[in-house]
C-alpha cells in the first residue's frame, strides 16, 4: 500500500529540485524528508534518485513514479478546488492533445461543442507530435487525442480510435498562383511550387503516393509540421498548399487564397483517440456527435472503430 505522505514528499523534492528546497516549501527539516524518501524507496524496492555531485537526479523508475505522482496530486488539487468553489458551476478540467498536423480551425470546430455543452469546463490543449501525445494518453495525463491518423497497435499503447469524419483534399494558393496553375489541374502541379505538411501528417504520405501515381513532380518549396505556418508562407505567395475541404471557406477568407481544384479520391480522416472503447466522457461524446452530425456530415457519416479496425457501436 502506497504511503501518500511519503509520495508527496518525493513529488515535492522532484518538483522543487532537491531536498533543501522542498524542506523550505514544506516547512520540514531536510532530515525528515530524507528519511521519508528512504522509506518510500524501501516500500517500492527501487531507487528513485541518483546523487550526481550535490544534485539529485531522477532515475528511470523515479521519472515514472513522478509522472504518476504529478497526476495524483493534480487531481487532488482539482478535487480541492471543486469542493471549495463558491459558485454553483464546478470547474472541470478536460485535457486534450492535438496533433500538430491537425489544422487549428478544425481543432476549434471539433472542441467548441464541448465548451457549449458544459459552461463549467476548463479546457487544457496541448499541441505536439503524436509520439508525445500517445505517451500522455497512456499515462492518463490526457483525456483525448485528436489526430489525422489512428493509433496503431504497433505502438504498444492501449487505446481506441473513434472516427470523427473524413473529407476530400483540395489545393490552395494566392490568386496569382491559382490563376496560373488552375488550368489543366491537377497536372498543372507538375513543376509547380508546393508546400507540404510535415512527416508526422497523414496527408503528407497520402499526397506523395498520389503525386507519384499521377507522375506529377512539383518543386517542394517547404515542409511544415505546423499547418498554420504552412498557410502563412502560402499567403505570401511562396507556394501551393493542400488542405481539407471541410475548412475551405476559412482557408480562403483568413489567408487570402483560392482553390485550384479538389481531389475527390483523396480523403483525410480525423480521429478522437481515447483510453476507453465506449465514449462516456460528456465532453468527448459532445465532440463526436457534433463532428458526425454537423462538421463532416456533408461528406460522410462517420463510423466509430477501435484500434483493430472493428466497428465500435
Key features?
alpha/beta, 313 residues, two-stranded antiparallel ribbon, elongated, 11 helices, six-stranded mixed β-sheet, Arc Repressor Mutant, subunit A, D-Maltodextrin-Binding Protein, domain 2, transcription, disordered C terminus, transcription regulation, DNA binding, 24% strand, WH_DNA-bd_sf
Structure, explained:
Keywords: Activator, DNA-binding, Transcription, Transcription regulation. One of its GO terms (molecular function) is DNA-binding transcription factor activity. The protein has a 6-stranded mixed beta sheet, sandwiched between helices. The chain has 313 residues and is an alpha/beta fold. The chain is built from 11 helices and 10 strands. It folds into 2 domains: 4-84, Winged helix-like DNA-binding domain superfamily/Winged helix DNA-binding domain (Arc Repressor Mutant, subunit A, Orthogonal Bundle); 89-313, D-Maltodextrin-Binding Protein, domain 2 (3-Layer(aba) Sandwich).
Secondary-structure blueprint:
Layout: H1 4-16, H2 19-26, H3 30-44, E1 49-52, E2 55-58, H4 60-84, E3 92-99, H5 104-117, E4 121-128, H6 130-138, E5 144-147, E6 160-173, H7 175-181, E7 193-197, H8 202-213, E8 219-224, H9 227-235, E9 241-244, H10 248-255, E10 258-274, H11 282-295
Parallel strand pairs: 3-4, 3-5, 7-8
Antiparallel strand pairs: 1-2, 5-10, 6-9, 6-10
Domain HTH lysR-type: 2-59
Family: Belongs to the LysR transcriptional regulatory family.
Pfam families: HTH_1 (PF00126), LysR_substrate (PF03466)
Gist of the model:
One of its GO terms (molecular function) is DNA-binding transcription factor activity. This protein is an alpha/beta fold and 313 residues long.
Amino acid at each position: 500500500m502506497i504511503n501518500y505522505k511519503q509520495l508527496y514528499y518525493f513529488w515535492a523534492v522532484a518538483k522543487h529540485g532537491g531536498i533543501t528546497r522542498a524542506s523550505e516549501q514544506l516547512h520540514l527539516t531536510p532530515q525528515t524528508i530524507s528519511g521519508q524518501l528512504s522509506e518510500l524507496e524501501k516500500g517500492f524496492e527501487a531507487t528513485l534518485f541518483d546523487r550526481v555531485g550535490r544534485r539529485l537526479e531522477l532515475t528511470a523508475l523515479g521519472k515514472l513514479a513522478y509522472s504518476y505522482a504529478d497526476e495524483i496530486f493534480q487531481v487532488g488539487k482539482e478535487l480541492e478546488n471543486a469542493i471549495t468553489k463558491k459558485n454553483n458551476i464546478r470547474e472541470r478540467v478536460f485535457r486534450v492533445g492535438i496533433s500538430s498536423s491537425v489544422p487549428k480551425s478544425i481543432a476549434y470546430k471539433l472542441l467548441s461543442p464541448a465548451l457549449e455543452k458544459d459552461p463549467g469546463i476548463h479546457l487544457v490543449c496541448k499541441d505536439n507530435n503524436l509520439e508525445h501525445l500517445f505517451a500522455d494518453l497512456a499515462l492518463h495525463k490526457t483525456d483525448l487525442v485528436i489526430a489525422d491518423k489512428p493509433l496503431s497497435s504497433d505502438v504498444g499503447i492501449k487505446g481506441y480510435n473513434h472516427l470523427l469524419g473524413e473529407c476530400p483534399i483540395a489545393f490552395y494558393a494566392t490568386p496569382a498562383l491559382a490563376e496560373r496553375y488552375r488550368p489543366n489541374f491537377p497536372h498543372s502541379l507538375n513543376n509547380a511550387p508546393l508546400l507540404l505538411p510535415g512527416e508526422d501528417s497523414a496527408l503528407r504520405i497520402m499526397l506523395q503516393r498520389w503525386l507519384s501515381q499521377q507522375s506529377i513532380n512539383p518543386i517542394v518549396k517547404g515542409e511544415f509540421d505546423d499547418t498554420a505556418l504552412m498557410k502563412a508562407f502560402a499567403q505570401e505567395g511562396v507556394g501551393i498548399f493542400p488542405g481539407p475541404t471541410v475548412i475551405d471557406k476559412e482557408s480562403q477568407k483568413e489567408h487570402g487564397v483560392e482553390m485550384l481544384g479538389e481531389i475527390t479520391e483523396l480523403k483525410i480522416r480525423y480521429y478522437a483517440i481515447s483510453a476507453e472503447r465506449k465514449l462516456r466522457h460528456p465532453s468527448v461524446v459532445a465532440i463526436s456527435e457534433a463532428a458526425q452530425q454537423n462538421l463532416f456530415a456533408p461528406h460522410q457519416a462517420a463510423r466509430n472503430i477501435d484500434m483493430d479496425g472493428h466497428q465500435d457501436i
